[in-house]
Amino acid sequence: MRAFVAWCIILVHLALEVYCTGNSLPKRKLDGWTFFQPNVEIVMIRRNYNPPGGPNESMCVTAAFEPELLEEHRLIKVFFYLNMSSTHILPNHTKPMWPIANISMTFSKQENKTGYNTVNSYIIKSWHGYSLSPPKWRFLLNNGSCAVVKVLSASYGNRANVSGKYGTANFGVICTKA
Question: Could you report the per-residue pLDDT of 143-160, keeping only the tens digit for each?
Answer without folding.
Answer: 889 999 998 876 544 444
